Amino acid sequence: MADAMDSAFTKYGIVGIGMMGREHLINLHHLRDQGLAVVCIADPHPPSQLLAIELARSFGWELKVFSGHEELLKSELCDVIVVSSPNMTHHQILMDIISYPKPHHVLVEKPLCTTVADCKQVLEAAKKRSDMVVQVGLEYRYMPPVAKLIEKVKGRDFGNVKMVAIREHRFPFLVKVNNWNRFNVNTGGTLVEKCCHFFDLMRLFAGANPVCVMASGGMDVNHKDEIYDGKVPDIIDNAYVIIEFDNGCRGMLDLCMFAEGSKNEQEISVTGDIGKGEALVPEGIVRSGSRVGGRKHVQTIKAEDERIKYEGLHHGSSYLEHLTFLSAIRGEGRAAIDLEDGLMAVAMGVAAQLSIQERRYVTIDEVL
């Protein structure tokens, strides 16, 4: 195999090499036959740097290590940057990458930024860089059962979509470096940090943009006995969110983060005027039926994607995300999930957080 510094190689840098950064590193290792290599990383946290160095060495990659993204940019060692640093750092990092003279393609982890204003600033800046592909890491679209459901919706198997219901019942937030994910100011709030995935899917299934949001939620079980620098976490651990779309479709999110006793973590249901489909994750099952056929004729299939070489933390979706992103940066298409998608997913989350805080109905125009 050609050397990693060969010009035919696509050279990657990763900014933020904590748990998700290392997950990207492993996925890229599994894609090395596509002619790519990770050549550098940036992270201010020495333990994270060491874990990444050891991991990369096990893949036969020697990494150049920087403590910040500015040094990585100035080194001009890479063509592509994966941004997987804490949420509250995304805005500055993206603005610096976009304004840097040498173009770097970017895959930024969700959420795009923690506020709508920051997302809009990034979007405006990126419009001036036609030499860059910027994709947002809303990879749940690529989970095989979800992708199959998207395919059925696009094929109009269920007719005109009228309702989208998404249930995520899961474990609490994991421990992150310096516990940054315990506070809304750092994450954007649970409905931005975690649920931007589901708001993105709702928009996709509805084929429309949101108009207004109504939500109820709270911090009722998790993190109440934790204290960091004298502060108790303020991130909600459960919520119901209802969203109305401009084509009359409705979406509902049911989130619970103290539901470890669940068979599936995500249950996604899309109902149209002639039929209904469901995707179950991690079972990997898709069910579909029609109003005419009724319960007797509901079909169940196991959704799989033979392209996946590494399942990882997200059932192979990160692998497929990198595969499609690689096609886009090599000129075989545009960013599959663009900055507008990233902005709208954050806006829906921000509106939901505001609705809970102020106990009222919030229009998307208010937050945009």
UniProtKB/TrEMBL annotation:
Q: Which one of the record's GO molecular function terms can you name?
A: nucleotide binding
- Occurrences of domain Gfo/Idh/MocA-like oxidoreductase C-terminal (ranges): 151-364
According to the entry, every stretch annotated as the Gfo/Idh/MocA-like oxidoreductase N-terminal domain falls at: 11-137
Record-linked Gene3D superfamilies: Dihydrodipicolinate Reductase, domain 2, NAD(P)-binding Rossmann-like Domain
Return the SUPFAM superfamilies for the record.
Glyceraldehyde-3-phosphate dehydrogenase-like, C-terminal domain, NAD(P)-binding Rossmann-fold domains
Q: Which PANTHER family match?
A: INOSITOL 2-DEHYDROGENASE, PTHR43593
Name-wise, this protein is Oxidoreductase family protein
**Source organism:** Arabidopsis lyrata subsp. lyrata
